[in-house]
Amino acid sequence: MSLETKRPTVEAAEEILGGYFPALDHGFVALVDYMGTDEDVERAARVSYGAGTRKVSLTRGLIRYLRRHRHTTPSEMVEFKFHCAMPMFIARQWVRHRSASINEYSGRYSLMPLLFYMPDEEHFALQSQSNKQGREQLASAEIYKSAVERWERIRADAGEGYSWMIGEDIAREIARIDLPLSTYTQWYWKIDLHNLLHFLSLRADPHAQWEIRVFANIIAGMVKRVAPLSFEAWLDYDLLGQSMSRAELSVLTELLDADESSISARPSTSFSSDKLKEIGLSGREIEEFLGKLRRPSVEDFELDLSTMRKAEDVQSEMHKAVPGHFE
Ligand SMILES: Cc1cc2nc3c(=O)[nH]c(=O)nc-3n(C[C@H](O)[C@H](O)[C@H](O)COP(=O)(O)OP(=O)(O)OC[C@H]3O[C@@H](n4cnc5c(N)ncnc54)[C@H](O)[C@@H]3O)c2cc1C
User: Fold this and answer.
1) Residues 122-150: tens digit of each pLDDT
2) Whose CA is nearest to atom 30 of ligand 1?
3) Which domains can be identified in the chain, with CATH numbers?
4) CA–CA dist 102, 23 (Å, integer)
5) Across the strands, what pairs with 84?
6) For residues 326 and 65, which has the higher predicted lDDT (pLDDT)?
7) DSSP alpha helices (H): ranges in the chain?
8) How many whole angstroms from 96 Cα to the centroid of ligand 1?
9) pLDDT recorded at residue 267
């Protein structure tokens, strides 16, 4: 018997609840549960009795005001619970976000599925020269082919070592120690809207590693369904907005004539990079400042519902990848 709930729910979120969205070659993100919507952000902000509803335009205005002025605690009243599977090197970046609750699959208790992340050729790139934490142009097809051969060899060896030890009844907590960072792990992850948007600001950003962005983009698509007004405000003021330093603001003020009601460009005012340095911007800051002024490209963060899978299918795939599995 299904009970009618008195809790605030959203149709767009109910549509994807419990559905598994593939990420990379063997990973996934599923929204297992959520508590609250945009309405709850407003109710918390107004410390309301919850009687009656307000116009969407009023809720939108309030949510945007709260975000602009960093009044963040009302958005902590909305919670999300996810089930995610990701390669261990991504889990290591993800787990740095401390304001969340995690329960990870136990390699001491359970057998590890032997699933390893294999980057596609289109993401197999050379070390970036400008950003020590990034990649640049694609590697050649021959190098990619040789890398795939090596990955296959190393993973087959690591998987064989693990399976052999399990077969010899060695404790799982010891048998697992040489599984590579490309091995998939999984967890339940619960986080509130405020901290989730902070996570997305850092991990859906182009500076984040592409592989974690794949997960962040799916999660962003889920937030868009649960709390669309908060999502829109985050996009406008955080992801696609920019904060300015004092030096950056002084450059903009010099370039513009602004009064109470209008802004116009000051004719024939320009800044050479020497002038920008004089104002106090370093070479790196100048580059970043110019980057801020470029119009950002906008993702639509729409989930592709045609890729959504059933929990049973995903579970059976994971189960089949465990050593000693027989049909
Ligand atoms: C592009 C990129 C590159 C990175 N490179 C590295 C790297 O090379 N090495 C590395 O170690 N990490 C690296 N990180 C991780 C980064 O330093 C943060 O640890 C991570 O992004 C989590 O951010 P956070 O602490 O703001 O988030 P959370 O842990 O979710 O915290 C949210 C907020 O809560 C507050 N907070 C939480 N805990 C504390 C606390 N103990 N004390 C004070 N305030 C707290 C802070 O305001 C914080 O912003 C990188 C992250 C990114 C996005």
Assistant:
1) 999 888 887 878 888 988 999 999 999 99
2) 97
3) 11-117+182-241+302-320 (3.30.1360.170), 247-292 (no CATH)
4) 19
5) 29, 187
6) 65
7) 11-14, 38-46, 56-68, 88-94, 141-167, 172-175, 193-203, 210-226, 228-234, 246-255, 273-279, 283-293, 311-320
8) 6
9) 86
